[in-house]
Design brief:
The structure is a single chain. This protein has helices at about 5-20, 35-50, 55-75, 110-120, 125-140, 150-160, and strands at about 25-30, 85-95, 95-105, 160-170, 175-184. It is of the alpha+beta class and about 180 residues long. The chain has a single domain (about 5-184), classed as Histidine kinase-like ATPase, C-terminal domain (Heat Shock Protein 90, 2-Layer Sandwich), CATH 3.30.565. Strands 1-2-3-5-4 form a 5-stranded antiparallel beta sheet. β4 and β5 (about 175-184) form a beta hairpin.
């Protein structure tokens, strides 16, 4: 990569976009336990500086860790033999809300299942989410990735709102984008 005018303009455009969108951190790559811990500690430190209340800090921390664990476990096209998921992670704060955005590749088969699960979670009341969580704890089966299906339910319970998109990539999969917003 050369430090030419085109590259520098791209970096400046990225900087301006991040600043105008109140993005604090962007990361693209593999997600390991160590990286999850590092981002959680960074977010916690930033919230301490902003003197956020304890409840907000707990919600942001919980959603951040859960979304990153989902990236780690459920990304398709795993990049190496250690099964570390790869994807994109963004965290920021705008006005009175924190937002966490993750993105990873999924196969078309998983897209259909995931879309059903998310739609069910998004359109549930807090009481229904609580019941879904209890039912999944009691009756849930472990997936081939070791999850019990609690992640999305738990994220929805802690976040103020969830939004998602699937962008088709090619004949084999889609890019899954999840946005969780936590009101402070």
């Amino acid at each position: 990569m050369e430090l030419n005018v085109g590259f520098i303009k791209s970096v400046l455009n990225l900087y301006d976009e991040m600043e105008s969108s109140s993005i604090d951190l962007v990361y693209f790559g593999e997600f390991s336990h160590e990286i999850t811990k590092m981002f959680a500690n960074m977010a916690e430190g930033k919230m301490d500086l902003l003197e956020e209340d304890r409840n907000t800090k707990k919600k942001v921390y919980h959603v951040l860790v859960e979304t990153l664990q989902n990236l780690n476990k459920h990304s398709d096209w795993i990049s190496d033999k250690r099964s570390i998921g790869s994807g994109l992670f963004i965290i920021g704060k705008k006005d009175d809300s924190y937002y966490i955005i993750t993105s990873n590749k999924v196969s078309f088969e998983k897209k259909e299942i995931l879309q059903e699960q998310i739609e069910s979670v998004i359109h549930s009341t807090p009481e229904e989410l609580k019941e879904m969580y209890k039912r999944q704890l009691k009756d849930g089966k472990l997936s081939d990735k070791g999850g019990a299906g609690l992640g999305l339910i738990d994220i929805a319970r802690k976040a103020g709102s969830l939004d998602y998109k699937f962008l088709p990539l090619d004949h084999s999969g889609a890019l899954f984008i999840l946005k969780a917003e936590i009101h402070s």
